[in-house]
């Protein structure tokens, strides 16, 4: 999602609905990955502080954003876990499927084994693509719902609150500077949030190259 589309979305009358829907979809459905959750949360925090709001539009309520964002992120992730638990094996058992590759289950098991269930679920919030896969894959490999639910809530709260309130604080403290370079700042944020994904892809490529 480009900066222009983010700006248009947050200045629309349906800004909150758009934010909450994207957060739920990004964390709940393995088909809808790569949505701009990080960029959207940071942008929402900035817009709640008044930066980027076009004339005639109301500021987003920081309280509503801060409460609704983790709630919908939790709802989406919970659905993802349920989907993986009940239908994941069937979905990821298609040998000719490029996206639903059975190897992804093994990769998820290695990822969760490496970091532990709680850490993997929490850290997965901060990595694009992983954010949309870790929840259904947690269901597939049978992470108990109580365990998943606890770390899901912890991860959602940390992820959303750090980005939203951090951006809000920056927006209120450095309003003039951020307003002047808002486009560049949002584009830089979008680029930075992709770095963890690129690093994971690089490590996977290096591992495969070493084994080949």
Please characterize this protein's 3D structure.
There is one protein chain. This protein is an all-alpha fold and 212 residues long. It has one domain. The protein is 76% helix and 0% strand. It is built from ten helices and no strands. The chain has helices at 3-10, 15-28, 37-48, 62-91, 103-115, 117-124, 130-140, 145-173, 175-180, 182-211. Helix 2 packs parallel to helix 4 (62-91) and helix 3 (37-48) packs across helix 8. The mean pLDDT is 77.
As a percent range, the share of helical residues equals over 70%
Count the helices. How many? Answer: 10
Ends: how far apart? Answer: 36 Å
- Uncertain ranges: none
H/E series, N to C?
HHHHHHHHHH
**The biggest beta sheet, please?**
none
**What is the count of distinct domains?**
1
Provide the gyration radius in Å. 18 Å
- Computed structural class: mainly alpha
List keywords for this structure.
212 residues, mainly alpha, globular
Produce a short descriptive summary:
It is built from 10 helices and no strands.
Q: What's the helix and strand layout?
A:
Elements: H1 3-10, H2 15-28, H3 37-48, H4 62-91, H5 103-115, H6 117-124, H7 130-140, H8 145-173, H9 175-180, H10 182-211
Helix pairs in contact: 2-3, 2-4, 2-7, 3-8, 3-10, 4-7, 4-8, 5-6, 5-7, 6-8
